[in-house]
Amino acid sequence: MNAIFASEISAAFAKVIDMKDTYTNGHSERVAKYTAMIAKEMGYDEETVEKYYRIGLLHDVGKVGIPKAVLNKPGKLTDEEYDVIKEHTTKGHEVLKDISAVPELAVGALSHHERHDGKGYPNGLSGNDIPEVARIIAVADSFDAMYSDRQYRKQMDFEKVLSIIREVSGTQLNPEVVDAFFRLVDKGEIRAVEARETAGNESLPD
């Protein structure tokens, strides 16, 4: 598949996802850009960085299959509603699994809510059993989820977000990926902003 065409298709799908989820407009693109930035900082080659960007764009594609009343509920979710939300990982995998040109698209959608300590979903993977791209998306997704407005709360303070990410390194999030994230923060490539900008010069999970 032509790389430009693949990127355009991924971007189009990402816009569809964000149209469904009123409160996360731009989330997919921001997560993709953070994912690419972290991957580059970790030393991945340019081709892999671009591939991981596309995978990041579609990490939430399964949300298209989640009822909007649950997805955009302004209050606290019930246990049953949270179980429905968690289905976006397996639904995303089902949508993407037959795209043979980029098989990891499905992996990113399925595994980005797995935790380093094995307490994530849907399969309870831990450590290095979690696919590389999903480990990176998890950090990017967690950062953007906290550092943007959600249906249940306003954007959190930048320093508070950084503090939480430090706290969950080694439990929720992969420590090597977190270290790369903080190198980007130290270099000013991920930084506090006064208002939401395009990802890549701004800057827990769903």
Structure description:
With 206 residues, the chain is mainly α. It contains nine helices and no strands. Helix 2 (27-41) crosses helix 7. The two termini are 31 Å apart.
Structural class: mainly alpha
Radius of gyration over alpha carbons?
16 Å
**Dominant shape:** globular
**Number of helical stretches of at least 4 residues:** 9
Mean pLDDT: 86
- The low-confidence runs, each spanning 5 or more residues with pLDDT under 50, are 195-206
Strand coverage percent: under 5%
Main sheet makeup: none
- Total number of strands: 0
What series of H and E elements makes up the topology?
HHHHHHHHH
State the helicity in percent bands.
40-55%
Distance between the termini: 31 Å
Topology of this structure?
Layout: H1 3-20, H2 27-41, H3 46-57, H4 68-71, H5 79-96, H6 104-111, H7 132-146, H8 158-168, H9 175-186
Supply the key terms.
206 residues, 55% helix, 0% strand
Summarize the model shown.
With 206 residues, the protein is mainly alpha-helical. The chain is built from nine helices and no strands.
